[in-house]
Amino acid sequence: MVSRTCNHLADVTIILKCENLQLSGSFKYRGALNKLLRLSPEQLDRGLVTYSTGNHALALLMATEQMSKVREQTIPIQIYVPSSASNDKISAIKSYCTSPTTVVLQENGLDWCAKEAMETCKSMRMTFVPPANDSDIILGQATAAAEFQDQLAADHLGELDAIVVPCGGGSLLSGCASWFRGVPTQVWGAEPQFDGPGLHASLKAGIILPKQKSMGMTIADGQRTTLSPKSWAILRDQTNLQDSFVVTEAQIRKSMSLYHGEFGGIIEPSSAVAMAACFEVAQRQVTIHNATTATKIGVILSGGNISAGTFHRLVNGHRRRVFHIGWVVFLKSRNINLAVFTNEADLAAGAVDLFSQEGIPCIGPPKKASLLETSKVFAKQFMSKNNVPTATYGHFSCYEESLLFIEDQLAQGRRKVVLKHPGIGARQGVFVIETLEEAKQTLVAEFGVQTCGSSRQPDFDILIEEFLEGREFTIMALTDGRNFTMFPPYLDFKTCKENNQGPMTGGMGCVCPTLKCTESMFQALAQGFMARTIAGLGKEGLDFRGFVAIDVILTHDGPIAIEYDLGLGDPETQALMPLIQPDLDLAKVLAQCHSDQISLSSLLFQKDRFAAVVVAVTKKYPLESETQPLHVNLTTPTQKAQRAYSGMEAVKFEGMEYRTDIDLTQTAALANACERRPYQCPTHPEISLVNVEGALELSRARSVKHVFVFPGNAGTHEVAASNGTAGISAFEGASSSEYHDLAKRAKDIGIGLVVVGPDDDVVNGIEESFRKVGVSCFAPSREAAELEGSKVFAKEFMNKFGIPTAHHGSFDNLEAASAYVRHVFTDKDHRIVIKADGLAAGKGVVLPETPEEALEDLRSIMSDGKFSTAGSSVVIEEYMDGYEISILTFSDGKTFFSLPPGQDHKRILEGNKGPNTGGMGVYSPVPMVTPDVLQKIDEVILKPTFDALAKEGRPFCGLLFTGVMVTKSGPKVIEYNVRFGDPETQSSMLLVHEDTDLASFMLSCTNGTLAQVKNSIRIKSGFACNVVIASGGYPGDYKTGKVATLSSPPEGVVIFHAGTRKEDCLLKTAGGRVFSVAAYGDTLEEARRKAYMGVDCVSFEDMVYRKDIALGGLAK
């Protein structure tokens, strides 16, 4: 067959050899038949064993059927098929099965099938018929090339300049290469980019390379194999084999679409691999020949064993993309300023990605974010992670496991269970069943389940969830990715018959606003369901500009989210648009959305007005009708939606049908019942789990009932008791090293917010453990926490995004680091700072005075393991002159808010002498820091940092501690920490006004709503000072177990425990830093004086503290 379409695209003559038209559906029949013809009668009588992903098995079955007819005797066959094979091929194999044929599905892949087949052959003395790596098989496949050449001669088309053959296991390609040996026809292989046989790489290396771990799985299932040794031996020595082209999945789909578009037939993806590669070969041929030479390229299409449904599912995305490309050309020619996407298929096909790449402004989610609508599994997992209440569900790829889940749900007293196709968009592929038998029938009829063979079947995928009793409605917002504005809640009538009977449709009517959703409930859902959804998208790097709709079911226990829709639906759009205030410019609002300027009041709607839509359809819709529904709209100032039906009198057509129960007042009683059990928007935690330093301030929050501290210390109870706050107690029942146990325990007892303090826990990803169980965690993700976890990463990050910091070098080799030190010390006035790359409890920084000290420090850190593995790499940077400050900044990934700056005292001795510590004291705010300096820090450090983290897909949600050196040339970053600092937190918290609900403020950072509450935090106008009391010898060797005594501190002074424990009813030291004493005053001098008065209330042997905390601030 000559393809005119391919000829036009490639500008050469392309001739197709269509093995997909074989009775067996592929070229494999040739090799199978040739093999059987060469077996002895005794070998045939013993029976045959093989393994296959599909085509070879089908071919062997058909060849055996022919041989059995000739011999008038059946031939037993046993076939091993991997469960990863396509359902289409498994079904085709089973349809050919006769009584002496056994099909065994194996879950462990093709290699395991091969092993089982050969072991069966030996144990049962059967005859092995391999799919490849057999001389008879290869010679049989060569007949495809011979037949191709004969057909060309018969049609007077002459010799081919090149032929393209799919690679697979190599039998067809090696057979064709052998046939064309000695003629000028070039032979080219073709293979997929993912999970292919690797011929291109093997030819380059000169040996068969082992199969490499792939980044994905190709749709060309026949190519998910390895080269057979015998085929390789032939291919390696063929001088006419040029190479093997590697093609993408998109190219495969495009070729399938091209073939179907021209010839109306279908080819499987493995065939399309060769067709895709022929365009690459054509480019090579055009460069070889002169312009007057007619270049002829042959393509062997290896097979067509694929169902029409699977074929169309694979190619439809490409067809839509071709359609989108045409639209891009059109819109550019018309200078369109904004494209608004609402169609699910467009979003799933990546239309927004394509248009954005072409510079066309878009409203709508990119392909990855559209999974929220197009993948029910993704949506359910997203809801669970982001605390959006949803139905109990299970996701299964195993038929028997799914039945057990259904049986369990029905056994629990649930009358119905919902089955959903995971990969089909909103409101489609949904089936409600009431019995186990009905479930089995639905799984077979609608989900393609094979009732025999392996329980884990390829392509079987199902979402099963509890059936919720109640009435549905929808809330929708327009978002710029950070802020959002709400539409009125509406009710969509989805089934085709009254009283919600009959099959699901695209919508039979809509009323807006729905009285099911009261105003208070609506506000709670907006701040709960919608805010958490938009914040969750931001945290996962999926934020976008567009529409987000959430279908909600109103149960007697409150609203539950069902699923998401990311477009303007039909018919709800027709009901929403008439309610917009007449003077509102919707195009302007959409433009504001694209420029990230959306606010709660961007959309304004007419009050006390209602809209209704009734949809008229033809008879038998939606099962057989292909016509478009007709909508009749009515906007009315009353709640009598029935008046919309007066418009139906003007509509007449044959077979017209419509629902007669479109009603605004429907089930208002249920809304009132739910109002008596109001849904509590999850913005206020009842219980918080925090680190010690933040426990006191959080316990004062009006939304907090109790604070648990983990692991706690001897002061856990005393701090709360002495300050008259909510209860504070130790958290029992889990080990700090077992994050999942800690998270499960927190979930079980109803903790609403977790605030993490220790740096190693944050860096090791504790936030993910809480997020997975649906507990809000005020801490950045593991990815964002790398800012503190690796100083090398932090420096590279700052360099990449132009964030000012010290000049530096990074080294993981002692010799290279030492050479760098010798080089920089050639300048006698030059000083350096050496920092261990990893976490070192705040002590991983040394400031050598001389080259000798620096070299010794490097040996100690990198060779002697002074800081363990944290010192395997180091950062060596210039010593910056200036004054140092610490900035604590809250962030939800986009919005940020900083507390007043503090100044820490790192060294152990007065006058900033001695080694570095975790911090010996701090005061805040710092008088010398002017508003201009703070603004500069926001502009050149903080905003670029948060923006860059979001850009890299690691948005920062939590508290960022930024050490800043204010130099003559401006502020520069010293380091980042990704949690509350100690002792900075104790001082900063004293500056927060008692009326501020810190728990709610932190929770807003976890759900992306900081912009809405950042103005609610109040900061006092005074000062705070904190003095740390440590054990003698700290930060080096020190002794613990010293008895400590405390007397009551003066009013306004708080003594925080750090390294303490209770033993034999005595308070004893248990760490290097033992206490910190913090005080607030109207002036810095007052705060300092109070703090040292508090120090006098503490006593234990060998206690040390600095006596110059905050003196620098007083001097200014």
UniProtKB/TrEMBL annotation:
Pfam families: GARS_A, GARS_C, GARS_N, PALP. Its EC number is 6.3.4.13. GO terms for biological process: 'de novo' IMP biosynthetic process; purine nucleobase biosynthetic process. The keyword Electron transport does not apply. The keyword Manganese applies. Keywords: ATP-binding, Ligase, Manganese, Metal-binding, Nucleotide-binding, Purine biosynthesis. Belongs to the GARS family. This is phosphoribosylamine--glycine ligase. It comes from Fusarium oxysporum (strain Fo5176).
